[in-house]
């Protein structure tokens, strides 16, 4: 690895970095290493080749945490099998999400792809675990269909550990992430850091279902809840599960009185960050507090000549982060996916509207920056490499943050890399793991700068006038998609309203507040409609008014009065995370009676 242990010669940088580390030490565990222990990978193919190489060289253990492994990733499975055959002492542990990893069952899926490894090498050497959210139980679990059910929360961490090294990334383990889906990938050669994330991986695994081979069944596997697990099944007792999860994981992510590891010649500090909101009560996750701490510090006048770059493939940051980015004193750059580099570009149905919705979010961000007097200090760049769906076209999935100190433009001292999309969903529903790097090592600063500039190479600045172009104009359908983005981005806890459309409603993928125009298009399918708006918040009452207007405005629909209910029901989240309308029935007290159908698409 390049970079050596050469430290920055800037006398100003060290005390300014202390502004950040003094606060971060109060938030998360800390590891001090050398900058040459961090390698920055640049491309999907480099990531894949590095991953396979380190799997082949592993001697003791391999642990892989990911959302899913692509159902056709036979080469990766073959490489894992070869490594296990070559080294009898080698052990493998894989953690994926149970909902995403079994979505295609009984057809090929992550679980069926991995089960043969257990058959060949035995459960003593190969353990496959699948995390199931405690948010999806009871009637929700019974009635919500596959894919849509993933809206209630996922195992989203990406931890790829082999012996004393770990790759931190936002990439999943499937062919597009190995070929033409741009992400970020940092390799940490540190036994202490790898051991820490192995403990996090093992902790969540002990709270997850176990994959057991079942060759005689159509799926080829079964999911069981071992009695040795650290908690009751989330499907049996979600409250008991969360209590046990808190006891298991909360001590692991909290800061310690002194650094866990220290080198005399250390020039780089590593903070492992975790967002485990749905598993912790009280909530003690570290990612959002750490990111908030950094951005708040950048608001100080002393950082007026510093700079930051924030990137997200799906530009829908948590509102608190949006405000902090705009209020920083530093110059800033946002890199996001062009519509033509968005994974939903060209998709059929409502999903095809999402690229335009993300573009509108970016536009509103820039408009807010201009209103705050920051229009000249913050730039928006759109990343594009070809066109999705065409030969040579790539998608953009990179996310993270780089911060350069005053006088060190293009040589970031701070970098954040990992699985998080920095959305409300990341902070409310999914399990996320990240690494925050704070460094004075010139070689590492150079590599981080090259990484950031490498993403800029395929990005173009977007100005106010560009949003007026025909292809960027946003109509009602895209504004509906924005609502879908809000839900998929994790607005579950911020927006508690549910309404049920009953009778012969054919399709209505829109909230009442934006529905009048969209529902006119399907009014020929409406022979009768009852709308139930549940909740007592100000937002709910405003929604009720919109529903009243809607009911009188939709052609062919009777002018029924909506019912405002204050008592929550067990199915209050159906609409929220499904990004669609639940077709079913509720009684006059808001009790959910049955679900006929759910139309729409989750994240």
Helices and strands in order:
Elements: H1 13-24, E1 31-33, E2 38-41, H2 44-57, E3 61-65, H3 74-86, E4 91-97, H4 98-101, H5 110-121, E5 126-131, H6 138-143, E6 159-162, E7 165-169, H7 175-179, E8 181-182, E9 185-189, H8 191-205, E10 209-214, E11 220-224, H9 238-253, E12 268-275, H10 287-297, E13 307-312, H11 319-327, E14 331-337, H12 354-371, E15 378-383, E16 395-396, E17 399-404, E18 414-418, H13 424-428, E19 432-439, H14 442-456, E20 459-461, H15 476-488, E21 498-501, H16 515-520, E22 531-534, H17 538-553, E23 563-565, H18 574-578, E24 580-586, E25 592-600
Parallel strand pairs: 3-4, 4-5, 8-16, 13-14, 14-15, 21-24, 22-23
Antiparallel strand pairs: 1-12, 2-9, 3-6, 5-10, 6-7, 7-9, 10-11, 12-19, 13-17, 15-20, 17-18, 18-19, 21-22, 24-25
Helix pairs in contact: 1-10, 2-3, 3-5, 8-9, 10-11, 12-15
């Amino acid at each position: 690895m390049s970079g050596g242990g050469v430290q920055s010669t800037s006398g100003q940088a060290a005390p300014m970095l202390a502004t950040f580390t003094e606060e971060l030490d109060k938030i998360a565990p800390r590891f001090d290493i050398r900058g040459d222990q961090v390698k920055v990978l640049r491309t999907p193919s480099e990531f894949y080749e590095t991953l396979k190489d380190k799997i082949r060289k592993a001697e003791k253990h391999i642990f892989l945490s990911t959302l899913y492994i692509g159902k056709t990733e036979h080469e990766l499975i073959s490489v894992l099998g070869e490594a296990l055959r070559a080294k009898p002492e080698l052990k493998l542990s894989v953690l994926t999400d149970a909902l995403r990893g079994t979505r295609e069952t009984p057809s090929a899926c992550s679980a069926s792809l991995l089960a043969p490894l257990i058959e060949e090498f035995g459960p003593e050497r190969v353990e496959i675990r699948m995390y199931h959210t405690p948010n999806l139980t009871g009637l929700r679990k019974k009635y919500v269909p596959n894919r849509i059910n993933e809206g209630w929360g996922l195992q989203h961490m990406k931890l790829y550990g082999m012996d004393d090294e770990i790759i931190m990334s936002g990439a999943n383990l499937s062919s597009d992430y190995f070929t033409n889906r741009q992400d970020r990938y940092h390799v940490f050669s540190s036994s202490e850091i790898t051991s820490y994330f192995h403990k996090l991986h093992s902790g969540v695994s002990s709270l997850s279902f176990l994959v057991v081979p079942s060759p005689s069944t159509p799926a080829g596997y079964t999911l069981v809840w071992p009695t040795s697990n650290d908690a009751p099944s989330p499907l049996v007792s979600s409250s008991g599960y969360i209590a046990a999860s808190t006891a298991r994981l909360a001590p692991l992510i909290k800061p310690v009185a002194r650094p866990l590891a220290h080198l005399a010649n250390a020039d780089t500090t590593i903070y492992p960050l975790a967002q485990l909101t749905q598993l912790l009560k009280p909530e003690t996750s570290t990612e959002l507090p750490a990111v908030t701490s950094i951005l708040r510090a950048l608001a100080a006048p002393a950082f007026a000549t510093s700079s930051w770059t924030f990137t997200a493939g799906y530009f829908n940051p948590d509102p608190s982060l949006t405000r902090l980015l705009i209020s920083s004193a530093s110059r800033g750059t946002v890199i996001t996916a062009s519509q033509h580099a968005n994974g939903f570009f060209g998709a059929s149905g409502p999903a095809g509207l999402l690229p335009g919705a993300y573009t509108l979010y970016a536009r509103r961000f820039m408009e807010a920056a201009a209103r705050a007097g920051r229009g000249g200090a913050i730039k928006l760049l759109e990343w594009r490499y070809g066109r999705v769906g065409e030969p040579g076209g790539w998608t953009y999935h990179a996310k993270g943050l780089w911060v350069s100190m005053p006088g060190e433009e293009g040589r970031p001292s701070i970098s954040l890399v990992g699985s998080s999309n920095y959305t409300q969903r990341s902070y409310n529903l999914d399990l996320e793991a990240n690494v925050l790097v704070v460094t004075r090592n010139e070689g590492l600063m150079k590599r981080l700068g090259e990484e950031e500039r490498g993403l800029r190479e395929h990005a173009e600045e977007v100005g106010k006038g560009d949003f007026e172009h025909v292809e960027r104009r946003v109509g009602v359908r895209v504004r509906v998609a924005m609502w879908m983005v809000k839900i998929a981005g994790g607005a579950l806890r911020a927006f508690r309203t549910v309404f049920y459309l009953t009778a012969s409603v054919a399709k209505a993928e829109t909230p009442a507040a934006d529905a009048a125009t969209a529902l006119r298009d399907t009014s020929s399918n409406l022979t009768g409609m009852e709308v139930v708006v549940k909740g007592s918040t100000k937002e709910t009452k405003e929604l009720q008014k919109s529903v009243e207007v809607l009911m009188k405005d939709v052609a062919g629909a009777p002018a029924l009065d909506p019912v405002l209910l204050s008592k929550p029901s067990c199915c209050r989240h159906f609409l929220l995370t499904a990004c669609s309308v639940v077709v079913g029935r509720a009684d006059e007290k808001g009790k959910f009676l049955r679900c006929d159908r759910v139309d729409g698409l989750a994240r």
